[in-house]
Design goal:
Length: 368
């Protein structure tokens, strides 16, 4: 095993104490082979760069980069600078890649973004934009669980210890009076950390009674006979909470602001296209997922339809909800109270939004 691969795997599976326990969205442990968009670079290079290396996941909560790549919208903004995507299965590996300069920019969930920022003492990354909200549900076996009062004694899966959904479930259970040891998952309700890839099989085999998971895993469980018991949107003000952010290494942001601005413009324009062409966007997303360099398999209609519908595309990083998610991790005992001041730099995003005639967004006091 190569040293680089070893480091990526170690970053994904290790469970350091407290702050280090925060993970990703739970899609495995390694980056897949780098792949290039079909649209060829054309025109002058942006910031003199040969390429910009971006990280993303092959799932529906990363619709912005997947659709933007499929439609060539990022490449169009970068001109002669090639877009070089790397597809990851988990946030820790993507953070490791950012820290080791294997990627420059990435789409990622809130927990690994918080973790990466705090562990580096505020020096590794900045959140520079939003991408998606929502798309997380509690899906249960309706024969075993008919209401939220039936959770005692049951086994509920989350993708990974300390990941975004794990924190959300632990916080929810505590609010309902259930006692659960955050580290072991043992208690009134058993919280079982299960990779999203195998969660549908575990559900069908009966080894779990339900799961608090993001799309498209939630839709896969429904297709397997599960019942949506709770949409996490109902727990948040206005039904909005961050599920995917756009981050950049601070070094790259400082050296190549024009390239970062180009990627942000591609993101904003992709999101606008998704909102105005939902049917085409859903197809573009599924086409990209079918590419073997991404997920390798298109989702069936009974999965892609609800999974796409349940995710809200947004340019706003929903900064206030990031602080709340960090607070939930602290309350669960998975994180020491972090200082997130400076985690956001929305300067370039707001510049792009103004140029597109769209309202600017707020960093909730957590800006540079």
């Amino acid at each position: 095993m190569s040293a680089v691969r070893h480091r990526l795997l170690a970053a994904a599976v290790s469970l350091p104490l407290l702050v280090g326990v925060l993970g990703a969205c739970g899609y495995g442990s390694e980056a897949k082979k780098d792949t290039a968009a079909d649209v060829a670079p054309k025109g002058p290079k942006t910031d003199g760069l040969d390429n910009v290396r971006i990280g993303l996941f092959g799932n529906t909560t990363h619709a912005t980069p997947l659709v933007g790549l499929q439609k060539g919208l990022f490449q169009k903004e970068l001109g002669g600078t090639a877009v070089k995507p790397s597809v990851f299965n988990a946030g820790p590996a993507e953070i490791e890649a950012l820290n080791s300069r294997a990627i420059d920019i990435g789409w990622i969930g809130p927990s690994p973004a918080i973790n990466g920022y705090v562990k580096s003492h505020g020096k590794s990354l900045k959140i520079i934009g939003g991408s998606a909200s929502g798309g997380v549900s509690l899906i249960v076996n309706p024969k075993k669980i008919k209401s939220l009062s039936d959770l005692r004694g049951k086994t509920i899966a989350t993708p990974q210890l300390g990941n975004t959904q794990d924190v959300a479930l632990l916080n929810f259970l505590a609010g309902k009076g259930y006692k659960v040891d955050a580290t072991t998952g043992k208690g009134d309700v058993t919280v079982q950390r299960t990779d999203n890839k195998v969660t549908p099989t575990a559900f069908q085999q009966g080894s779990i009674d339900g799961a608090w998971v993001p799309e498209p895993t939630a839709a896969k469980l429904v297709a397997a006979g599960g019942k949506p018991l709770l949409d996490e949107k109902k727990l948040w003000k206005d039904g909005k909470f961050v599920i995917t952010n756009l981050i950049v290494s601070q070094e790259f942001l400082k050296k190549h602001p024009k390239a970062v601005e180009a990627v942000l413009r591609g993101s904003v324009r992709t999101n606008a296209w998704i909102r105005s062409h939902p049917a085409e966007a859903k197809q573009a997303l599924n086409d990209q997922l079918a590419d073997p360099e991404f997920a390798g398999k298109a989702l069936p209609d009974n999965v892609i339809d609800p999974a796409f519908k349940n995710v809200d595309i947004t340019d706003d990083p929903l900064a206030a909800t990031l602080q709340q998610e960090a607070d939930h991790a602290v309350q669960a005992g998975l994180l020491k109270k972090p200082d997130l001041k400076g985690i956001y730099d929305l300067t370039l995003l707001n510049k792009v939004l103004r140029s597109e005639g769209r309202p600017t967004v707020d960093d909730a006091g957590l800006g540079s």
